[in-house]
Amino acid sequence: MKYLGRFFLFAIGALALQAILEVLVIKGLHYEPAKGWTASDLLLSEAIGFLAVLVATLVAARLEHRNIGSYGVPLRAAFGRRWWEGMLWGTLAPLAAFALSVAVGAARVDGLALHGATLLKAAGLWLVVMILLGLFEELLFRGYPLEVLTRGFGFRPAALFLSILFGALHYFTKPMENWVDATTVGLLGLFLCFTVRLTGDLWFAIGFHTAFDYLALNVLGAPNTGNEGKPLADHFLNTRFTGPDWITGGPRGIEASVWMFVVIAALFVAAALRFRKRPGGSSFSIRNS
Fold first, then answer.
1. Is the per-residue pLDDT at 27 higher than 90?
2. In terms of CB atoms within 10 Å, which end of the chain has fewer, N or C?
3. What is the 3-state secondary structure (H, E, C) of the chain?
4. How much is the pTM?
5. Tally of domains within the chain
């Protein structure tokens, strides 16, 4: 039970620190968040979230006499080959689901929604936001928590528990959610746990998470229930989702499309073939458990 206790202490500590920092920053800067998701609001919130979970991870490493690489983020591999490969996979996954919707006449693209300097500014700013989001959520769900629960209960129970929690939090904390979205989010979380085990660290998962959200929300302009079921105001392509919700995902976005089940199954198979275990392993205990 001590490992479960460490997990809860980490999660409570990270989220409490995040909440405290948000209050201090918002009050200190007299910052007034906009209605709906904006790049400036999310840049601030995701930076605070990442800082909070990073501090919690560093504290855990200090208390356990380890380095941060023990929890899946070796600094020598930061934004290296694995991260870029994750970015590629994370781009292809929602793009494949969208392409299938286009193929059955449920969606289409009518050119660009932004142009010139406006497009370039939005593309750069949102990329930074999504990188911070990927770092924050992967460290929070598949960094120290996955490692410490794996030590206590084994990889499969730890991955299953965290993935169910990941899906449940989406279902219970966001409006207009349904079982499809919660299930696909949970399965994507399980896939990312799987990649951590296969690759030996979090960098592929961080890249995947970054690119998935960037492609779906920013490039394709898919709606999201966290944004009142609407697309971001400054998405890049003029995309039309005209089919039924079970095909397009409706206000929940591409991740709630029935095509995501096909895509996720393909991701598991492709990862198993791509990242076959090699001799030697790594210092990340999940790899060797």
1. no
2. N
3. CHHHHHHHHHHHHHHHHHHHHHHHHHHHHCCCCCCCCCHHHHHHHHHHHHHHHHHHHHHHHHHCCCCHHHHCCCHHHCCCHHHHHHHHHHHHHHHHHHHHHHHCCCEEEEEECCCHHHHHHHHHHHHHHHHHHHHHHHHHHHCHHHHHHHHHHCHHHHHHHHHHHHHHHHHHHCCCCCHHHHHHHHHHHHHHHHHHHHHCCCHHHHHHHHHHHHHHHHHCCCCEHHHCCECCCCCCEEEEECCCHHHHCHHHCHHHCCHHHHHHHHHHHHHHHHCCCCCCCCCCCCCCC
4. 0.94
5. 1
